[in-house]
Write a structure and sequence with these properties.
Blueprint lengths: L1 H8 L17 H6 L26 H5 L6 E7 L2 H12 L5 H11 L8 E4 L4 H7 L3 H13 L8 E3 L11 H7 L4 E3 L9 E9 L3 H12 L4 E9 L4
Parallel strand pairs: 1-6, 2-5, 5-6
Antiparallel strand pairs: 3-4
Bound molecules: zinc ion (2 copies).
The site of one zinc ion has 7 residues, from helix 3.
Length: about 230
Amino acid sequence: MIKHLIDLFFHPGCLICSTPAGAKICEDCRSGIHFIKSPLCTTCGMPFPSKESHDHLCGKCYKKRGPFASVRSVAIYDGILREAIHRFKYNGKTSLAAVFGEMMKASIADHDYDTIVPVPLHRKRLKERGFNQSLLLAKSVAKGLDLPVDYLHLKRVRETSPQVGLTVVEREGNVKGVFRIEGTPFFAAKNVLLIDDVITTGATVAECSRVLKEAGCKRIDVLTLARVVFL
Ligand SMILES: [Zn+2]
Ligand SMILES: [Zn+2]
């Protein structure tokens, strides 16, 4: 009874656009999200513009494999999703983590992960923002998968200048030595799901994966909510 009254006066509505809706994301918003589908690179997850082929290795991964086993992203970083991620990160709309996490969880087929690790923020950035968006996403994904989230051992020890406007090579240089494992290296022989909000060139998740691998991780799969796609 009380729950009905609350629903009547405070209809939860769409978490993205706030219009009353039966679902957490309304039909309009859902159709404005460009979900990434096959064909894509079996390793780095980059979607191919042609819709007429199967998943295969892209030219870049063919030349040089990343330190991760796979990278997958839910949707393209544009339009409604980009606006929603901005509100999530910069306007403190952290309630979006629940719906974003559900979207991410839905894109995981079967898994044998031992732990989830979010891409860490630098202490200073964390202080400014008040939260690590990747940790909120990781916790949301972990909920349904019944997995532990480890955010204490992979650290961002150096601040990076914003990656925007840098070339791929510059980005790779920009993240060198940024991450470090602190404390007991318990990642040894573990399968890790590494979580980030947005992937651009992949330099950040590649560097995190490299550090985790060095610490003895068996396998690292990367999952991000969104991905910048250069078409
Ligand atoms: Zn909506
Ligand atoms: Zn690739």
